[in-house]
Specification:
By secondary structure, this protein is an alpha/beta fold. 40% of the residues lie in helices and 16% in strands. Helix 10 packs parallel to helix 12 and helix 14 runs parallel beside helix 21.
Length: 546
């Protein structure tokens, strides 16, 4: 069999549905092998968009998303997507082409050491130097991509290897179960919980798995212990639950941080040091129980007292079965912070100014989206508003990136979400800056006949950086730009474009775009003038008084 045919058959054996990418000359053997395969090629307009789509596919399904690029500039364009997947815990396999490695007649033209380039930002990277090794290398790449913590893998497939002949056959995936938590560690954690007066649960990125969410809900229902989330833990438990304390979107001083300060024991579930920590440990401070697939990465501000290591869902189940809720537990003060936050937010949400006030927009998006609707946030200051004020009802219905925190991922993430869940309502929420970084993928979305709404929060600047600039007392300089007419821009791609001209029209516009098939873009002018006052001053002052 031809090596490229074997490669594609190995992908089929792994259950691959799509391969996202921009092929080059060095991928043509593989492209020909894909032509008759069950694996669908999704041709994108930039390798970064392909990588973001593959990562989001992995995030939703738990299966490795696959993307393809050529050598040199194609491979370098995967670097940001590789880091996005690696830090965010999303399984992907990147396949890049290369000039012939046995006999090349082009000197060093386009040649980079891509394998070495990928090494610091992947779990596994390898150059295929023999067709016979393709099955084992692909199996290893998939195994490592999906193993906790999921992440990025890379294979370089030179064109002379791709055309070789081989007798090798695909290797079937093995059946593997994650190790269970050790019962003595579980008992130690439960004893500590029963001795506490005001324990709290902090749900992080590693807990964002279907089975874990189910077990955590049962644990919360049995014990009555309140919970909060990091940004990557949003939706693990329905955030309209009466014991939800909020999302740690800001770094410190929010109502949710006061609730953590009120606790005398913190149970940290699925903690990942990639995220901005929702609390800092200090000597003699609140003790912490670490529950995760991996032992705690010790840090000057993180050194847990008890570690429960193993499958998180199983660990929570064991704890639920063992624990006896303590009569002395009292969460009234902790829940009071959440009540105060909701009262403060309600006042902001009613502000119908124009340009649109972010809290008002968050409220209207939440009202427009069904329970299983998915919002995909790019990176900007609006991410904080949505993380704080938008209650996620299900897992992976608020896709934001609090790991690499890269701009440009919002639109491709929404596109992949629409492919995985064609029956759901999908919305990309982007700043004008982030949208323009991969706006060319609008053509891909239209070509694929996807049903998505792209909501652009338009302030003609890099708003998040301007906010920090103002907070540091610097002059407002160097961060403003002009934008195209986004309505015409959308229409040029064959999408539908709309411009918000008053707060009153937002609900009807969102309802129309979400209920009408096709790709829709909404240009929404936004007023960020009070970001600093509300997020840096008012919230901290109000919560401190409680």
């Amino acid at each position: 069999m031809k090596a490229s045919d074997l490669f594609v058959k190995c992908l089929e054996e792994e259950g691959v549905e799509y391969i996202f990418g921009v092929p080059g000359e060095e991928n043509l053997d593989m492209l020909e092998s894909l032509r008759t395969s069950s694996v669908k090629l999704i041709l994108t307009r930039h390798e970064q968009g392909a990588g973001f789509m593959a990562a989001t596919y992995g995030r939703h399904t738990g299966k490795t998303g696959v993307c393809m690029a050529t050598l040199g500039p194609g491979a370098t364009n995967f670097v940001t997507a590789a880091a996005y997947a690696q830090l965010g815990g999303m399984p992907i396999l990147m396949v890049t082409g290369q000039k012939p490695i046995k006999k090349s007649k082009q000197g060093r033209f386009q040649i980079l050491d891509v394998v070495d380039m990928m090494r610091p930002i992947t779990k596994y990277t390898h150059q295929l130097a023999s067709a016979d090794n393709i099955p084992s290398r692909i199996r290893e790449a998939f195994r490592l991509a999906e193993e906790e913590k999921p992440g990025a893998t890379h294979l370089e497939f030179p064109e002379d290897i791709a055309e070789e002949k081989t007798d090798s056959l695909p290797i079937k995936p093995s059946i593997a179960r994650r190790p269970s938590a050790e019962p003595k560690a579980v008992r130690a954690a439960v004893r500590k919980l029963e001795e506490a007066s005001r324990p709290v649960l902090v749900i992080g990125a590693g807990a964002n798995r279907k089975s874990t969410g189910r077990m955590l809900l049962q644990f919360v229902e049995k014990t009555g212990i309140p919970f909060l989330t990091t940004q990557l833990g949003k939706g693990v438990i329905d955030e309209t639950h009466p014991l939800f304390l909020g999302c740690a979107a800001l770094s410190a001083g929010d109502f949710v941080h006061r609730a953590i300060e009120d606790a005398d024991l913190i149970v940290n579930i699925g903690h990942d040091v990639i995220e901005k920590p929702p609390f800092f440990m200090k000597n003699g401070g609140t003790p912490v129980i670490h529950i995760s697939n991996r032992s705690a990465e010790v840090d000057p501000v993180y050194f847990p007292e008890i570690e429960v290591i193993g499958d998180i869902a199983n660990a929570i189940w064991q704890m639920k079965e063992d624990i006896v809720p303590a009569a002395k537990w009292n969460f009234d003060h902790m829940l009071g912070y959440r009540k105060a936050e909701l009262e403060h937010t309600a006042k902001l949400e009613a502000d119908e100014r124009f340009p649109i006030f972010p809290p008002y927009l968050v409220k209207k998006v939440r009202e427009a989206m069904p329970t299983d609707g998915i919002i995909c946030l790019d990176n900007g200051v609006y991410k904080l508003w949505f993380a704080r004020n938008y209650p996620a009802r299900q897992q992976n219905t608020v896709l934001l990136d609090n790991a690499l925190a890269t701009m440009g991922a919002g639109l491709p993430s929404a596109m992949a979400s629409a492919m995985v869940y064609p029956e759901r309502k999908i919305m990309a929420i982007c700043g004008d800056g982030g949208f323009m970084m991969n706006s060319q993928e609008m053509e891909t979305a239209v070509r694929l006949k996807l049903n998505i709404t792209v909501l652009i929060l338009n302030d003609n600047s890099y708003g998040m950086i301007r906010w920090k600039q103002a907070n540091m007392g610097f002059e407002d300089w160097g961060l403003n730009y002009g934008n195209p007419d986004f309505v015409k821009y959308a229409e040029a791609y064959g999408a539908s474009g709309y411009r918000v001209e008053s707060a009153a029209e937002v609900p009807a516009l969102l309802k129309h775009t979400l209920s009408t098939p096709g790709v829709h873009l909404i240009d929404c002018p936004v007023d960020y003038s009070e970001n600093d006052q509300i997020l840096n001053k008012d919230i901290k002052e109000l919560s401190r008084k409680l």
